[in-house]
Amino acid sequence: MITITPYGAAGEVTGSAYLVETENSKILVDFGMFQGDKDDDARNVIPGRVHRMDIEAVVLTHGHLDHCGRLPLLVREGYRGPIYCTEATRDLADIILSDAAHIQESDFERRQRRALRKGHKVNRNDAPLYQSDDVEQTVSQMVDVIYGEPVVVAPGITAIYRDAGHMLGSASVELYMDDEGAKKVVVFSGDIGPPNLPYLRDPEPPAKADVLILESTYGDRNHKSLSDTLEEFESIIKDAVEKKGKIFIPSFAIGRAQQILFHLAEMIRKGRIPALPIFLDSPMAIRASAVYRKHEELFDQEATKLTDEGTIYHDLRSLRTCVTADESRAINDEKGPFIVIAGSGMVTAGRIMHHLRNNIDDPKSHFVISGYQGRGTLGRRLVDGVDNISIMGDHKPVRAQIHTLGGFSAHAGQVDLVKWYEAVALGGMPTLFLTHGEDDARTVLRDLLSDMFSVHAYLPVYSEHLEV
Ligand SMILES: [Zn+2]
Q1: Using CA atoms, how far apart are residues 185 and 407, in angstroms rounded to an integer?
Q2: In CATH, what number does 3-221+410-467 get?
Q3: Which of 66, 132, 202, 206 reaches 20 to 30 Å from 191, CA-CA?
Q4: What's the pLDDT at 191?
C-alpha cells in the first residue's frame, strides 16, 4: 500500500508538503513554508511523522518558498539525504532560501535590540527558524534532475520530471512506485503555469497517472486575458511618457520581474513605446535574471530566438540595474519618464517603500500593481483605494495613479487546469486529490471535473492519511 499524507497546502495555497510512504521507502515531495498568516510560525515545523532519519529523499517540484521553505529546518535537524530538483530550481531556491534566512536573521536581531533596550530577555520563540549556513547546507544536498530522464530516488521509487511552465525549472513529477508487486504511477502536478508565459515552455502533462495530486489555486476562476492586460499596461506607459511621469512597479523578484521586462522589450521592439529608462531596482531580481540567462536551454522557442539574435538585449538597452542602496536612492534625482521595478511584490518591505514615500503624493506618478496582494498588506490597501497611507513614519495622501493589472499570473486558470487534467486522464482516469487551493476554489473545480469527466475528486485535509 502507498500512503500519502499532506502536511500543508490542503485547503490553502501555502506550505506544500507530502509524506509518501511504501513498505520499503519514505520520501517527501516538497517541504514548503506556510506564508501570509500571523500564526504561521507555529505551523512552520517538522510534523511528528516526518522523522529526519528515515526520510530517504526529498523530491522538490520548484523553488518557490511555499514549496521549499521548510527544507533548511529538516537539514538543521540532521537530514543529510538527497534533495532532487532541476538545476534551475536549485539556483532559484538558493536565492529564495538565502533571502528567507536573511529576513529571519535581521528580524531576530531587531527583536534582540528592542528587548535589550527594555531590559527584557529575548523570547526563545523569536529565534530564526534557520540561518544562512543551514541554507548553504540544504543547497549542497540538492541533486540535479533533467526533465524527462528517470531517476531512482529511493528503493522502489523512480521519478520523472516534466516541465510545469510555472517558473524557471518548475516541474510536475511522475513517481513510478512499487506497490506489493505491482507498479503504480503517482503524479504530483506541482504548481502549473498558464500557457504562453514569457521565457517558459508550456506545461507538459504526464501521459498517465494512477493517482493524481492536482493543484487548484485558480480552480474557481479564469484570469483576465493577457492581451487586455498588456494593452492597459501600454496605455499607462504612454500616458507617463507624454506627461513625463514616473512609473513604479512593485514586483516579486523572481518570475514576475523578468516577465515584465520581457513585455517591455516587446513593446519597445514593436515601436509601441520609446526606449525609456527602466531601473531594475532589486538585487534579488538582478540575481534571478542572471539565473534566467544561465539557463537559456530551458527557454521556449520565442525566447530562444530573441536571445540568440541578441534582440532582447537590444530592446532593453535602456535597462539599468541598481545593486546598491545608493544607486536606488539616486533614482530620486532622475526626471521622468522612467519605469522602476522594485520589491517587494506586496509593498510590505524593500526598496519600493522609499519610492512610495517619495512619490505617492505626486499625481504624475503611477503605481502599477501586477500581482496578488494579500490581506493586510500595503499593496492591498492601495488596490482598495485608500486616501492616505502611513509609510516609514510619514503620513502621505495618495495622489499618484494606482493601477491594478490582472492578467500576469504564473498559475494556470480554471480552463488551463481542466485541459491539463484532461490530457492526463486520456491515459486512464486517475484517483484524484485536489490540493494547493482554498476550499472555495477546489470545491468549484471538483464539481466542474465531476460534471465534465464523471470523476470524483477528494479534498484532503492537513495530515490526513490517504491510502492509495
Ligand atoms: Zn509556485
Answers
A1: 34
A2: 3.60.15.10
A3: 132
A4: 98
| Ligand 1 center from residue 444 Cα (angstroms) | 21
| pLDDT score for 301 | 96
For domain 226-404, is the CATH number 3.30.200.20?
Answer: no
Q: Rounded to the nearest whole angstrom, what is the distance from the C-alpha of residue 70 to the centroid of ligand 1?
A: 14
Q: Read off the C-alpha cell for 394.
A: 510619514
The residues with which 58 forms a beta bridge, in sequence order, are 28, 83
> Given the C-alpha cell 491539463, which residue does it identify?
420
238-245 long-range contacts (CB < 8 A, ≥24 apart) are: 238/273, 239/366, 240/336, 240/337, 240/339, 240/364, 240/366, 241/273, 241/274, 241/276, 241/337, 243/336, 243/337, 243/364, 244/335, 244/336, 244/337, 244/364, 245/336, 245/337, 245/364, 245/365, 245/366
Q: Could you say which DSSP state residue 126 is in? A: G
Give the pLDDT of residue 119: 87
Using the mean position of ligand 1's atoms as its centre, give its distance from the Cα of residue 327 in Å: 31
Residue 70 near residue 46, CB atoms below 8 Å: yes
Give the domain ranges of the chain.
Answer: 3-221+410-467, 226-404
pLDDT recorded at residue 126: 77
Alpha helices in 86-184 (DSSP H): 87-117, 132-140
Question: How remote is the CA of residue 330 from the centroid of ligand 1, in Å?
Answer: 33
pLDDT score at 120: 85
Count the neighbouring beta carbons within 10 Å of the beta carbon of residue 362. Answer: 14
Mean pLDDT by 10 residues, the chain (468 residues): 96 95 95 85 89 89 97 95 98 97 90 87 82 98 98 97 98 96 96 96 97 97 94 97 97 95 97 98 97 97 96 96 97 97 92 96 96 85 95 94 94 97 96 96 97 97 96
**What pLDDT, on a 0 to 100 scale, did the predictor assign at position 270?**
97
Q: How much distance in Å is there from the Cα of 314 to the middle of ligand 1?
A: 30
Q: How far is the CA of 311 from the centre of ligand 1 (A)?
A: 29
Q: CA–CA separation, 52 vs 78, rounded Å?
A: 6
Phi, then psi, of 59 in degrees rounded to 5: -110, 115
Task: For residues 462 and 11, give the distance between their C-alpha atoms in angstroms, rounded to a whole number.
Answer: 8
pLDDT confidence of residue 55? 95
What separation in angstroms does the CA of 291 have from each of 63, 91, 414? 12, 7, 30
Determine the distance separating the centroid of ligand 1 and the alpha carbon of 295, expressed in angstroms.
18
- State how far the Cα of 209 lies from the Cα of 81, in Å rounded to an integer: 27
Q: What is the pLDDT of residue 374?
A: 79
Residue 419: closest CA among 214, 271, 157: 214
Nearest Cα neighbor of 238 from 263, 208, 273 is 273
Q: Which three cell numbers stand for residue 361?
A: 503624493
Q: Give, in degrees to the nearest 5, the angle at Cα 416 between 66 and 436.
A: 25
